[in-house]
Amino acid sequence: MGPKTTENLKAAFAGESQAHMKYLIFSDKAEKEGFGNIARLFSAISFAERVHASAHHNVVFGVKPTASNLETALGGENYEVETMYPDFRAAAEKEGEQGALTTIRFAFEAEKIHAKLYARAKDAAASGKDLPIGEIHICSVCGHTTEDGAPDACPVCGAGKGKFRKF
Q1: How much is the CA Rg of the chain, to the nearest whole Å?
Q2: 157 three-state secondary structure
Q3: Residue among 145, 69, 67, 71 nearest 106 (CA)
Q4: How far apart are CA 112 and CA 155, in angstroms?
Q5: Rounded to two decimals, what is the model's pTM?
Q6: pLDDT digits (tens, 9 = 90+) for 19-74
Q7: How far is CA 150 from CA 116, 135, 157, in A?
Q8: pLDDT in tens, 148-161
Q9: Which of 44, 61, 74, 95 is deepest in the core (most CB within 10 A)?
């Protein structure tokens, strides 16, 4: 594939991925405001944007075996923990951005757990086995991730047990 087409599809992948997430966020807001059909519209078009992003990704990057995908995911999580969020935190501290510091802390704490989970999954896949894991619970406020059941209060943000989603 030519360099301009590759660049364009990478940009399209990023844009479609952001639209997918943005529309899910808009759907949640519309639902909370009582606009069920508008929420459904945002959700449906969010799915279409995901389809577009997936197609662009597959053309540019392909889909590799799970062991390779876990290596990629682990690298991304480690980058976020070791470089990205510490740098972002330093900039937010310098600029006195308390809201940003909160969301950065939330993400940073979750990413540390995600890296450990991906490392375990990578080891399991390398030995030809699936990851032995039970229910995963994610805090819908901060993203705290646990496989020990939903706590009564999130240890990162303090949200109650009802804010956790089970996977």
Answers
A1: 18
A2: coil
A3: 145
A4: 14
A5: 0.87
A6: 999 999 999 999 999 999 999 999 999 999 999 999 999 999 999 999 999 999 99
A7: 18, 9, 13
A8: 899 999 999 999 99
A9: 74
Which helix (DSSP H) or strand (DSSP E) does residue 139 occupy? strand 137-139
- Alpha-carbon distances of 54 from 12, 14, 19, 42, 58, rounded to whole Å: 10, 10, 13, 18, 6
Q: Which CATH number fits domain 134-167: 3.30.70.2190, 2.70.70.10, 3.90.470.10, 2.20.28.10?
A: 2.20.28.10
Sequence-distant (6+) residues with CB within 8 A of 74 are 115, 118, 119, 122
Please state which of the four CATH numbers 1.10.10.10, 1.20.1260.10, 2.60.120.10, 2.60.40.10 is assigned to the domain occupying 3-60. 1.20.1260.10
- Scan for tokens 């197609």, then name that residue: 55
Domains 3-60 and 134-167 equal at CATH topology level: no
H-only helix segments in the chain: 3-32, 36-60, 66-79, 85-95, 98-126
Which residues are bridge partners to 89 per DSSP? none
